[in-house]
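Notebook entry, structure prediction.
Reason for the run: the old model in the group folder had no record of what sequence produced it. Starting over properly, with the input documented here first.
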Amino acid sequence: MSNPASRCQVVGVQVGTAQPLQVSDDRWEMSGIRKHGVAGRVAVRSLGLVDDEQADLTVHGGLSKAVYAYPLEHYEYWRAEQRALGLSGVLPYGSLGENLTVTGVLEESLYVGDTLHFPDCVLRVTQPRAPCHKFIAVMRDPKAAVKMMRSRLSGFYLAVETSGSLAAGEFFEVRPGPRGTSLMTLFMAGRSRIR
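New structure, fully documented this time:
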C-alpha cells in the first residue's frame, strides 16, 4: 500500500483524440494513444477524462479502463531505451499513452479495488496494462511490448468511483480495497501472452 507520507501526486494530466497511427509499412489504424498535456482542471466522468478518446474499446476505455495512469518513476527506463535505439529519448508526459502521470505509487504496491482519493474525485484500481501493437508503433521500437512485460513497468487502469475533476499538481491518497488480487498477480498471468 502506498503511504500518504510518500506524497502521491499527479504530475501530468493528458488527453487525446483518436487519430490515424501507422502500425506497419502499409497499415494505418485509428488510435487515441497520442496524448497531450492539459492545463487547469479536467472533468472526470464515468468513461474517463472529458475530451479523451479511445479508438478500440475492446482494448482500452470503457467503465473498467476509463483512466490510464503511469508512474513518473518509470520514465527514465524508457528514455534510456529510446536513446539506445538512436532516438532522442525526449518523452513528454503522456508518451506512453497515459492520462495521468503520477509519482509516489508503483504497480507492485497496488491491488485490484484500491482507491485513489483526489480532492474532487475517486478512482479505483482495476488492472495492469497489457501493451499492444499500437504501443510498439508509437514508441518506434519493435520490442517495446516485450520490454514493458519484462520490466513489469505497465502502469495501471482505473475505473471512476466518484466523478468530479482533477488537475496536474494535485496530491492524492491511496486507500486499500479488499486486497485480494495484486496488480502484479494479474500482470504475471498476462506475461505469457507477450513474446
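Summary: The chain has one domain: 4-190.
The old model has been moved to the deprecated folder.
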